[in-house]
Amino acid sequence: MNLTHPQFVILASLAYLSQDSDEVTQVMISKLSGIDVMTVSQILSLLEKHDFVKRKEHSRDTRAKAVILNKKGEEILQKAVPLIEQIDEIFFKKLDTDEEQFKHFLVRLNEE
């Protein structure tokens, strides 16, 4: 898929913020994703080169850029989200199994 985890987080944050706002800024993405503004800027530059996003002048804030998710960015997100969900399910299922085993051992230790 050729998409890093931070790139996915930025794209997903942008998609989420775009539902409620016409003009999403880097600062908004930074706050939601927990990634500092400079790193968000660097990742957006790379995503822009791959034509996943576009930046344009913000209509109300001349210091800010509005970030827009392109069609290609939407398509990669549609492919990535089910894959991420599948990976999460496998990972957390394993944790649940490990947790149950751990609890079982604690009970046995407590009984002795």
| Fraction of residues in H or I helices | 55-70%
What's the total helix number? Answer: 4
Radius of gyration: 20 Å
CATH architecture annotation name of the domain at 5-82: Orthogonal Bundle
- Find the structural class using helix and strand composition: mainly alpha
Q: Provide the residue-averaged pLDDT.
A: 90
| Strand elements, count | 3
Strand order of the largest sheet: 1-3-2
Overall outline: elongated
Kindly report the name of the CATH homologous superfamily of the domain at 5-82: Winged helix-like DNA-binding domain superfamily/Winged helix DNA-binding domain
Quick summary:
This protein is 68% helix and 11% strand.
List descriptors.
112 residues, mainly alpha, Arc Repressor Mutant, subunit A, 4 helices, elongated
